[in-house]
Amino acid sequence: MTHYFKDLLLLKFANLFAHPFYMKPTCPNKNCSFFNSKETVHKDGTFFRRCESRFIQRFKCNTCGKKFSHATNTLEFAQKKRSINSTLRGLLASGVSMRRSALLLKVNRITVERKFVYLAKKAQLSQAEFLQSLRGKVSHVQFDDLITIEHTKLKPLTVSMAVDAKKRFILGARVAPIPSFGHLAKLSRRKYGKRKNEHKKSLDELFQIMTPTLAPKPLLRSDEHNFYPPFLKKYVPDGKHEAFKSRRASVAGQGELKKIYRDPLFAINHACATLRANINRLFRKTWCTTKKKERLQMHIDIFVNYHNTVYLN
Question: Higher pLDDT residue, 77 or 124?
Fold first, then answer.
């Protein structure tokens, strides 16, 4: 064997065993005097992980006696059927309902519900890292609100969302309840009472998430909603704000794309249409309605992270 192939083989194995799975972990016990240290950590047998059909190394801290593995203190700890996590993430971000996902993956719907919460938490952490990589780089932002419902049309929700107009990344999306409006307002108050309006709270959260990613003197575009100017003045005082009149929706694009040539808010309208087309509970005509706004937020978090890291890459 030539020296070239020997070096290549050695490099391959060096990279393989440099993976965190093969590295000795540190003691996870915060009360231990050797917390986050490898000094007193030693191997302590193995256990068989059935879902992956392999043996997993256990470790033990000789100082405090804590036993652990690489899975300890991770989101995947004590999780079964890890092999379906990636597939389920793709299904939930592609317009498939949770019950149909369970049917396709041949698992119990309770399993899907538990993994739904896990995937949402993982997506939130991944999105935070992604936004950190965009810090100070976004020069053109468009933002708007998408209206949906919580169980019934008498209980509307708003999804405040912002996108990078150049690269089409979704910077953030926050869900909030709003009072019913229009011809259903009176019926809503009679049946469910006065409903809280947390739209300003969601906008505050959105701008807190979005502001660190903005470049100096960014361009911000939106419609003429009167809630926006105070937040722009508070969070982006040096930005240039352009407001455009709302237009009639076209037949295509889930009712989000506008019937206008060269839409100045195309990026945000297209992002809203993408949400409606790929999140089952946001379809225009669906029986998979949101029962809790917190679960809608989780589902949107999963889709946003999938959209930014998979669809646009």
Answer: 124
